[in-house]
Amino acid sequence: MAKSKIETQRNRLKEATEAGDVAERDAELIDEYLTYIEGQKAETTCGNHAFYLNKMAERSATSLADATLADLNETLDSMKGGTHPDVKDEGIGIGNYQATLRVFYRYHDHLGIDPEAIDIERSEGRDLSPSDLLYQDE
Fold it and tell me: What is the DSSP-derived secondary structure letter of residue 132?
């Protein structure tokens, strides 16, 4: 039987922690949060949250446990702008990271990050012209 997405992400988190890429405290906080949402959220949602939190814990210069809002924004901005070494030069969308961080810090309210202060980027989507669309007779 194939591993679930959350199980795969938990294994990746463990490997990243053992390699020193994720702080042990962050791994504990992420695991605690995932345990909390399992059974409450769809498996895909849990797996996605695990993925985004793992990536943030790996990419942030400051641990999630010790980060300030400015630290989080700096990491997110570098990912969006393509200046972070782990993302492509064109940058990546950060809305899902922001939304996941907001819920994570709402759960871990003792860490001192105001979840509502984490802005969530809204994707405007692509502008499609009629020439971009395929019709049934094509």
Answer: G
Which amino acid belongs to residue 111? L
Q: Which residue has the tokens 């001192």?
A: 112
Please identify which residue in the block is written with the tokens 């782990």.
Answer: 86
Q: Please tell me the pTM assigned to this model.
A: 0.85
Task: For residue 38, give Cα distances in angstroms to 26, 49, 74, 81, 113.
Answer: 18, 11, 30, 32, 23
pLDDT in tens, 96-130: 999 999 999 999 999 999 999 999 987 655 555 55
What is the phi-psi region of residue 45: left when phi exceeds 0, alpha when psi lies from -120 to 50, beta otherwise? alpha
Distance, in Å, from the CA atom of 26 to the CA atom of 30, rounded to the nearest integer, reads 6
Q: What is the DSSP string of 47-76?
A: HHHHHHHHHHHHH-SS-TTT--HHHHHHHH
